[in-house]
Amino acid sequence: MGRFAWLVMAFAPASLFAQAQVGNCSIFPSRNIWNVPIDKLPVHPDSTLFIATEGPGLPLHPDFGSSGTIPFSIVPGTQPKVAITFTDGESDPGPYPIPPGAPVEPGDRHLIVLNQDECKLYEVFNAQPNGDGTWTGGTGAVFDLGQNALRLDGWTSADAAGLPIFPGLVRYDEVASGQIRHAVRMTLPKTNDSYVWPGRHYASHLDGEQYPPMGQRFRLKASYDISSFDPMVQVILQALKTYGMMLADNGSAWFITGAPDPRWDDNILSQLQRVTGADLEAVDVSSLETSPNSALATDPNASNRASVAFSATPVFDLSVAPTQSVTLTGDVTASTIANLSDGQTVSFLICQDSTGGHAFNWPPNVRGGMQVGTLAGTCSAQTFVSDGSKLYATTPGVANM
User: Fold this and answer.
1) Domain map (residue ranges) of the chain
2) What are 178-229's pLDDT values in tens digits?
3) Which helix (H) or strand (E) holds 240?
4) Which of the chain's ends, N or C, has fewer CB atoms near its CB within 10 Å?
5) What is the pTM of this model?
């Protein structure tokens, strides 16, 4: 887990957060919301309403197989970038490293390119080649796979919820390895005209509480017996229990998305349709949110973290919890630590709001405090040990996560 290992150790056992790897790239940091288990989180209070609205008797459907669905291309850093023009707003401008003959999804014409040297993800909705090497798209989004940054609040992406598509695809290689370590992309036909973290955008005119918002997480119930399924299908179903499904777009009910691969056995995948909406439940993931503008998640099993209300002179009371977090909405000019204990390990999570650029001044009894990152919607984290009167950094810290 590289430079994020210390942060994982400060909050949870590392085995819980082993993120997906493709080519040379981890698919977002280990504590990104896509990569965090949600099996121990509470059921959403509107779960029964959501399931009843979308169809408790309708089957789970694998919207992937040996052909069709959403393909992707992996390219090197030397891949030439080509011009692309977008017809809609809220897009990241080109050029994009789209290779000649890049595969495009039928239907919505999603195009996905992963630059495995930059570790950047390029995604396009309604991608159309112009015949001269250039492209036109509806919307386009670029994601840095080493960061937890979300889209600007209210911005779409190549997906309706404003989320990346690739991290939610079921891929043959990971199923064959025996474990999927991320949430799975899902569609529903009736969505709310709102979104919840980590969603950033909606695409609906429905406003009743029975309609789930974009970004809503679902999971397969823990009590559902998966032992009679083919081993490949069991891997998928276990992921739906552990990591769940992310509502990312309008579409058919209970459709989960994967990448096409000729090695898929479509007959075996059809076993997924034995699962119905009644076997699923909506999940409340609000306790994982560290900042509305960051995909960085807390440890879902932790109970030792305190969120400190912002002020220019905050007090971090370690008698409340050894892990302290604050979202900066302005500059912290002076801060104080209260109730230090000798030998105590203390962690700080300091996040920027959607504006960013806010300064943070460590308390005077902190030694080795890092330069806190200032990028909008990102977080910085560092761990210390106490001698009873001062805190000493035990890690260099990680900025702009």
Assistant:
1) 30-72+142-288, 303-393
2) 999 999 999 999 999 999 999 999 999 999 999 999 999 999 999 999 999 9
3) helix 231-242
4) N
5) 0.75
